[in-house]
Amino acid sequence: MAVELDVFVGNTTIMDEEVYQLWLDGYTVNDAVKVRMEGGVLEEFEASADVLLSDTMDQYRTFQMCERLLHSPAKLANQLLFQIPPHRQAILIERYYAFDDAFVREVLGKKLSKGTKKDLDDISAKTSVTLKSCRRQHWVQFIGCDGFDNFKRVFKVVEELKGPLVENIRQHFLLSDKLARDYAAIVFFANNRFETGKRKLQYLTFQDFAFCAGQLINSWTIGAVDNMVEDMDVDLDKEFLQELKELKILITDKDLLDQHKSLVCTALRGKTKAFNEMEANFKNLSRGLVNIAAKLTNTKDVRDFFIDLVEKFIEPCRSDRWTASDMRLYLTHYTNSAHILDTFKHQVVWDRYMGVIKSCIFKMYHD
Amino acid sequence: MPGKLKAKIVAGRHLPVMDRASDLTDAFVEVKFGNTTFKTDVCPKSLNPQWNSEWFKFEVDDEDLQDEPLQITVLDHDTYSANDAIGKVYIDIDPLLCSEAASVISGWFPIYDTIHGIRGEINVLVKVELFNDLNRFRQSSCGVKFFCTTSIPRCYRAAMVHGFVEELVVNEDPEYQWIDRIRTPRASNEARQRLISLMSGELQRKIGLKVLEMGGNAVVGYLQCFDLEGESGLVVRAIGTACTLDKLSSGSAPNTNTHVHPNTAPASNACNSPSKDGKEPVFGEDLPSFSGPPTPFRALPTSSSSPPPFSPSKPCSRQSSSSDTDLSLTPKTGMGSGGSAGKEAGPLKTLLRQQTQTALEQREFPFFTLTSFPPGFLVHVGGVVSARSVKLLDRIHNPDEPETRDAWWEEIRQEIKSHAKALGCHAVVGYSESTSICEEVCILSASGTAAILNPRYMREGCLDIGSTDHRFEEPSPPSCGFCHIPYDELNMPFPAQLTYCYHCRRQKVPDVLFTTIDMPPEAAVTGKGCLIQARLCRLKKKAQGEVNATAISNLLPFMEYELHTQLMNKLKLRSMNALFGLHIQISVGENMLLGLASATGVYLTALPAPGGIQIAGKTPGDLSNEHHILTIQKRINDTITKNKELYQINPPELTEEVVGSPIPEPRQRSRLFRSHSESSDELSELDLSHGKKDAFVLEIDDTDAVEDIHSLLTDAPPPTGFYSCNTEIMPGIYNWTTGVQMFTSVRVFRLSNANLTNQGLNKIFTDLCENLLKSFYFKLRSMIPCCLCHLNFTVAVPEEELIQVAVTAVAMTFDKDQTQEKPADKPVTKGCSETEEQLQFPLELCADSSSITTQTSSKISGVPESTNVSPRAASVDYGSFADRCSTWLELLRLKAHTIRRGSVKTSRRTQSLAHSVSSLERSSPLPEGRSRSLRSNRSFGGSSVPVVKMTPLSFLPGTRIIKYLGIINMFFIRETTSLREEGGVSGFLHSFIAEVFAMVRAHVAALGGNAVVSYSMKECVLMENPNKNQAQCLINVSGDAVICVIETDQESMPSTINVVQTCSSGADGAT
Fold first, then answer.
1. Interface of B with A in 919-938 (CB under 8 A)
2. Beta bridge partners of B697
């Protein structure tokens, strides 16, 4: 004796947010029922386990039917099959595209392909995100590489569009601003293949990288100067990268270097406990930053951008025990002082470069 | 050539990929009506094709317009092989034939394929030009309005109620034609869908003709059913109530409606008008000495024709004859053949009876499919009358003359009529018919409520009489009048206990009252009501032909009796005394019969308090047994006390009422017999009237009896915050808020154990129903406090070991704090969170209506008169009038726009959005005058699909229906050969039901509506063969498409706030 068929369909599609999350997290129906039972929904509502099972099955079916639509969220809004109030649609989409920061951090910039199920298993184990959920989040990592259906669809859409990346993602996937920015960061990282996996970078969170990506997108891409070009937010502005070479004068011209140093030191004197270290390290640090700038024309060095920042600047400062406000103070004066140098003609490029560097370092300078 | 049908194919979207190589589709469309077919161009390589076709024109008879659906087929062009069909859309153009309904059908329709389900959508425009031919009503019945609603539709008043109309048409079922062996399942399904669509059209037209003959202009309570008789054919039959309806003028509608609760609204609308003044009290007239015993229930199973007849039971014939004489006495006043219905009958009463009688006797069947009535229409209610008959199906030889089927129903109706007469009643209200078919056996059932009606609505000439005699009237409160017995006390059709009405104290009332109608809104109730179900399974031997039919005939009376007993016991257990909306379904399977009786129990203040239930043992001497009985008795008493509390039943104590009287003498008790312990002699009497005394006695004679009592007690009450009923609304709850969730749920249970007992089956069946209810409560818990209304259970035995239960109902929220207040005391609270949500859309629309001036005037064509449009707006060219919500919305926007003329208020952000939209969605269709963008301006873009609410009730709480757009009657077949891949039967049916909802919503939206009322799923036939990985399902749904607006306190001021939900034009403007 068994229930052979059991369905419940509402004119307005009924969805329980808790069950949706369980589904997204890859729980099986039975596991989801267990979790719900532990959650106490039964006692709350004098229901039996059968009722809970039936309800969970119904909702899982609904979600499965919706998943096709969630792959291109714009369809969700004008499909006729499910009558879902707009605010619920927004929740569905937002949750579907939400990802686990720890998981994404693991795979950020990594090259995953279809064959690397084992990699996924590892990541899954490491980040305690269930495998099914990994899969759902999966397509994210393939932005920038080919061969993955879900990704292909998404990337194709974003790729063909003119206009700002974040806005395009937000429009197309109907995501919140925050989530769209995170996705833009992932696309950007994947496209430029930034190295994020090195041990020295392990302390950085996904949100640190997402912030930096946002800075780079806003200031260093073609889109920052011309907003009607394809791929404008995904590729760095080549002209700008060329111009960065000019900054080398700051470290190659000895007079300029000394002048710069003295200006900065004058401004900093007495304002920080780390003054001595700053003064002693000035030339090293300045060389570090300017060299990073000068090398960015090489794709390889672009990839190493973050590792370079950490090795050439953040680590030395950290070993000298600069505080965060020391860092702020130093970089502000370091940037501003360059404007007073009469022989330094590349103010615009300098600002465009240092603006991003400053905010990235501020974000990255933590334990 | 009285009509021209015009169709235009605008665009498609979300089409499936038909060409694997290119991942695209080369789509074109065939538009077919009758034998004429047009084609669009092929729109190559697009999943979102823009055809923007010319207007395809069909010149046709209006007869065809009524019968035929417009058939739209979307195909994929293939140069080298046959074109592949993507799917079809059938559009019923009937709503366009009625000047008061929709004037254009325009919108996105799901493209439906019987094998693949919904495959994309197509945007279509359809119009009809009826030529001004004075003769046009001669051939067809264009213009007759149809309503599924079983009350006088809101925004109409009944000038006259003509009475019963019925018709049936038969045909061969394409599924069983020889050709089916060689054609594809798709072709076969489509042939069937098309045939049923044609037959429904024909049926509707024929009924319309009958209505015109009677002088009416509408059919209310239209109930259409299919009998899939398999080999012997396909029967489509319909019944309804012919009426003459007048549309309420814009002035009066809002006024009468403002403070009227949905419950009472139609009534007051409809009744205020005919008599124009205070002559209303007719309803209250007192029939001083009309007396007679109550029969809560009369069920006299009949069988006939092929199987040996189950002889009509004795009491029936006796009663019929007695009441016949009663009714045909010589009239005192000399008007027709009235009756001197009683020695003390007052002149008015006599007059009333005569009028009604003469009015009704002209009709063959004084039946009414309505379940709620204008106040005063229903004078007295006698009780439930029902008849069943078992028939053997044989092939219908001549489809044009379906005489046998007609004769069968005729027979049943005659029987119902005679039952009603026996109860001293001249009419049957809340009438319905149904069938259950298994192989070649068919059970025909009909049931209704015997009643005495006020003749005013039946005969025009009678409208004044009430006022003439007004001074003689002794108005009795309307809250109890209908309970007073209609039959003669001295000529009681059944032995029953009568008391004086507990409300007015002047008339006799029965101790219990069973009816199939909704509770009259003016009735006085104590506490709240609840759903009461009696469930029963009976095994039967597998048999063939007549033997089988006989076996079923023999089982039926037992089942009726036992269902009735269960109902009565459960009613007592809840301390209630009346049932409304009683619906008894008996389903036949190969090896069992299922019986399910559902009703809403209430405590009518006018009726005496029900006595308790007493348990008695068969062997009084047995001590251990006595102890056992005592414990059961205690449990029962406890349950009754608990239920009284739960349903807030605290009737005022009356002095002569003996509460908790000692157990009456055994001889005086009415015994509640258990059917299997009875002799057939006793049974043939079928004395279903209980309650000689206030206590009921349950005799425990064996273990089965104990189990029965246990099962009585196992019905769990709904959890806190929930109520449930199967009537339109819950007696005792008045302040509904706007939260509405309609749902359909289906469960199929497989019995694995081959040798089950009746008892075991009963338990399984009861659990199945109870668990379903529990599931609903759980799923809908977020709506608390809420009431499940119109719970409509349908049971079936699709295969030998399967039990299928399908439920359609609506959950409605209400305001908990004021549950006790009546609408009269306080207008219904409106607003609530949902209103705010709804508010956003229209307001936003106003903000972005930048290009309104460029839109053609045809968009603004529809201005509902009732909305008091300002004179300024009225200067717009109305063109062909389309009272459509969308156009109305546009009008509002236009107004908003003219106020700030010229100021284009589209924000920059919106523009950029619109830009990216158009670059992405090249598919965005721009039909002339109704340009829409596919995406809304909201970030998550929810508003491009119009919201369509659905409810099985005749109203939506907190809203006012301003227009009926036509009947929705759709039939779909879905089949799969990849059942596993679609998630098994559950996955298959889940998506099919969702698809059916989607198609209903799309049709309503295309008519310009925003809601479906009186929605019902009349058929859900599921056949599965998991071994072959196959399943097939047929679903038939119906309802009334309407436009409704949110009720506000200032009814006369239409504002954007009034619009319930965004309509199809929701995303206009961002062009």
1. 919-921, 934-936, 938
2. B614, B671
Give the Cα-Cα-Cα angle B719, B722, B727 (nearest 5 degrees): 130
- Taking each continuous run of H as one helix and of E as one strand, the counts in chain B are 20, 33
Mean pLDDT of B950-977: 91
**What are B702-705's contacts with CB under 8 Å, separation 24+?**
B704/B674, B704/B676, B704/B759, B705/B674
| Average pLDDT value over all residues in chain A | 81
Mutate to test the interface with A, among B940, B945, B1000 (most CBs of A within 10 A): B940
By percentage, how much of chain B surpasses pLDDT 90? 28
Domain boundary among A97, A126, A158: A97
Question: What is this model's ipTM?
Answer: 0.82
pLDDT band at B125 (very low <50, low <70, confident <90, very high): very high
Does B29 score more than 90 pLDDT? Answer: yes
A 10 A CB-CB count for A118 gives 8
Write the DSSP symbol of residue B487. Answer: S
Per the domain annotation, does A59 fall within a domain? yes
Smallest Cβ–Cβ distance between B753 and the set A1, A8, A50 belongs to: A1
C-alpha count within 13 angstroms, C-beta hemisphere, residue B515: 26
Q: Are residues A50 and A150 in the same domain?
A: no
pTM: 0.78
pLDDT in tens, A71-91: 888 888 888 999 999 889 989
- Residues on chain A touching B751 (C-beta within 8 angstroms): 1
Q: Is residue A148 predicted with pLDDT exceeding 70?
A: no
Q: Are residues A242 and A342 in the same domain?
A: yes
The chain A residue lying nearest B1022, using CA atoms, is A5
A90 lies in the same domain as A168: no
Same structural domain for residues A358 and A277?
A: yes
Q: Does B50 touch chain A (CB under 8 A)?
A: no
- CB-CB neighbors (< 8 A) of B742 in chain A: 10-11
Within this chain, do residues A349 and A306 fall inside the same structural domain, yes or no? yes
User: CB distance B997–A48 less than 8 Å?
Assistant: no
Average pLDDT for B458-486: 54
Task: Indicate whether A244 and A344 sit together in one domain.
Answer: yes
Provide the residue range defining the domain that includes A110: 101-194
Residue A9 is nearest to which of B780, B940, B990, comparing CB atoms?
B990
